[in-house]
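STRUCTURE REQUEST FORM
Protein name: NADPH2:quinone reductase
Source organism: Nocardioides panzhihuensis
Requested output: structure tokens
Priority: standard
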Amino acid sequence: MKAWRIGSLGEPKDVMRLEEVADPTPGAGQLVVKVLASPANFPDVLMCRGLYQVKPELPFTAGVELCGEVVALGEGVDAFQIGDRVIGGGSLPYGGFGELALMDAATTFPAPEALSDAEASSLYIGYQTGWFALHRRANIQPGETLLVHAAAGGVGSAAIQLGKAAGATVIGVVGGPEKAEVAKKLGADVVIDRHTEDFVKVVKEVTGGKGADVIYDPVGGDTYDRSTKCIAFEGRILIIGFAGGRIQEAALNHSLIKNYSIVGLHWGLYNALAPELVAECHRELTRMAAEGSIKPLVSETLSLEQVADGVQRLADGETVGRVVYGARS
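Status: completed
Returned output:
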């Protein structure tokens, strides 16, 4: 089969190579799927650079989530059948950026019928992360104000939709007019272009000086530092990631004085420690997709040959929504 292999570390455009490799064979508890769609995620970028917490042995095929059609079952797999359409995580070294991928049955789920292949492939990581962050970690309530950073990206766009579905007023922060239009279409009540506006000032104006009850921060660094200036009394700042490149240090005296919480979210731990909650989340997301309250924003569908370019553009901050490798569209 053909697959994008990473044999050294660096920028995606420099280290990803489209090669002929052996087809994967499922081990116990695994399945092989024909890849129908696989979105680019920031962890794919970080793994190319050798900066992700998971450091697979070289060479490997990235693509941390996907939608696929089951073509082979490993020993002990009885929850799926050949031909099933499924979503979940790619099991390295055979991730989603190839014609075939390997998946672990324990983290694989039926693809929602309401979503296309590309949309379904984008439901797993971003929406599960958003659901756990907003509902399990922040306990968001109807009527609260949610501030979402990088609101036009894959993770941020999911947070907007999930926040609206939870009954929150959503403020999205983006970089540039094109991304502002995307955030508006996703349902954000207020959109702030950080290139021309001070999000701290706007949040305070919109909330009458109160600040945001929940802040969803996948950026970190200076974005986090500024967020502490517009967090509400008893607010919660969700630490989702560090796409900005700098891992911030929290001033705990400030958290004490202003009575806000700094809440971490490592969604992957739920797969290891509470898989029943991941399954519950998938059922809830499937229900929401069926009723139309969530729908992953797929901005581009790529051929296999275009994958490295798409991952690099994600790394450079040039994409909106989801950029998805789709074997069929």
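Reviewer notes: The chain has two domains: 2-123+296-326, 126-268. The two ends are 20 Å apart (CA to CA).
Form closed.
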